[in-house]
Amino acid sequence: xxxxxxxxxxxxxxxxxxxxxxxxxxxxxxxxxxxxxxxxxxxxxxxxxxxxxxxxxxxxxxxxxxxxxxxxxxxxxxxxxxxxxxxxxxxxxxxxxxxxxxxxxxxx
Length: 108
Description:
Layout: H1 3-19, H2 22-30, H3 49-64, H4 70-80, H5 88-91, H6 93-106
Helix pairs in contact: 2-3
């Protein structure tokens, strides 16, 4: 790709990202069990488990107009650790991956 085009597109994306409600997008990525935390660099303090918990709490409060309680806290940390009801097995992630592969093969 032409470097001028690449630079222009990159600048445009940065401009729009700065205006967006980034917390909502971050939550959408984290709460997608197939993406989870894999998209985030471990060197960014805001994207550590505690930083992400702060973001999730903020978005939760904006949507539901009250603070997350202790069960909310426990559920979030169980989720990011793939524990209890949020284990890959309990969420049936492997089965969903297989269903997706079959769907893609049938529809292409």
